[in-house]
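Marked as duplicate of an earlier ticket. Keeping the data here for the record.
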Amino acid sequence: MSLVQPTDPVPVDKLGRTHFIGLGGAGMSGIARVLLQSGAEVSGSDARDSDTLRELEEMGAEVHVGHAAENLGDAETLVISSAIRETNPELAEARRRGLRILPRAAALGALLLGREGIAVAGTHGKTTTTSMVTVVLQHLGVEPGYVIGGKLVTTGLGADAGIGGPIAVEADESDGSFLMLSPTIAVVTNVEADHLDNYSGIDEIHANFDAFVDRVGRTLVVGIDDPGARRVAETARERGKKVLTYGEAEDADYRITRIRARGFTTEFTLSKAGGVSVDGAVAVPGRHNVLNAAAAIAVADELGHDIEVAAEGIADFAGAARRFEPKGVAGGIAVYDSYAHHPTEIEADLSATRAALESFAEEAREDGGEESGGRIVAVFQPHLFSRTRIFAEQFGAALTLADEVVVLEVYAAREDPEPGVTGELITSRVGHGNVYYTPDRGDAVRLAADLARPGDIVLTMGAGDVTELGPLIVDRLAEAAELGGE
């Protein structure tokens, strides 16, 4: 995988019949859904069947399981992701025919044409922030369009065309594809080193964000606490863009104070420079989620909505798939799933979990009970060999925040294996002895369930198929609880 060549979006009514390779993926399926709602003809294929494919088929898409040249039919446009290899028979056939071939982001960019586009960019927090923007606008009576990398809990969907008005989308910097979007408003949550299989280093990442600034039509909403994002704000101002900032910094336009955990809910106060102060609460843990909420409120304010009502709307946010998603409770042990796959994300989620456990313990003491003593059992699956090699030390430091750590083998995704790069690179760097490495998924389930005790939280973490382990851990915990009760 490498940085993609920017391609100008084509208006939806000019795409003709559009075929997607990897139609069942979160990004592809969302775009396809909105196109179908817009009256476009859509077809696509995926390596395996899924509920997502069947939902799109019910909406009118022509769906194929497996890849073959004949699947293209009479398509005029082919949409691909950067993970699609040149050997794919559908891509090869499209090139032979001379069809229009668009990167996924160019197809996403087509959805923004003619609408007030809101694009959320940044190394971390894109899905959650885009979801919060959507939920807040819905609370305000707007029916926005949205394309999100995970399903909203409130709607059960990852995308919807909405009814005119604004459309909120994720702007993916991982392969440079966000340079194919031209939003009216953009959010930049943070800018860190990541995706170094594509980028030569942080300087190239900064250069791409600088180029993204030029794509924004009106306003940038920037997380000022992050040094990389602050740099983007400075660049945007120099280039004459309107900039609104949010964070705990004293110079933030939307300043966050009084962050406090109440179990898995996080309360905060937001003060607009020269304006009102409002109290809010978001039903997910962690300072990082409060910052995401502040970005959503700032976007709503910039769109002309009442900031107090926008803050109330944050309370409607019930989460997004794989973003601290509850998987079940058994034997007094709660299991959650997180998409965290970068050291900063792992540290944020584990710190948030710790704060929630401490809040529960404090409540127990106030009620005259005993301190719960809940611990964190982290089950982590590294994602990409390159990321594992580059950030092994930082992964180990972040995972040290958990009381018990189970590390799986690396999820290869789009990469070929690297000699000597395994999950053991990380376990050897965890700062305590309660750490286990296993390449066997079944063994990881057993370990996690056996290590956990009542009051603990088990957190599966990673961008790969580790998400499938949460329900299995819940089942094993339930079986153990049943046997213990006999």
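See parent ticket for discussion. The mean pLDDT is 93.
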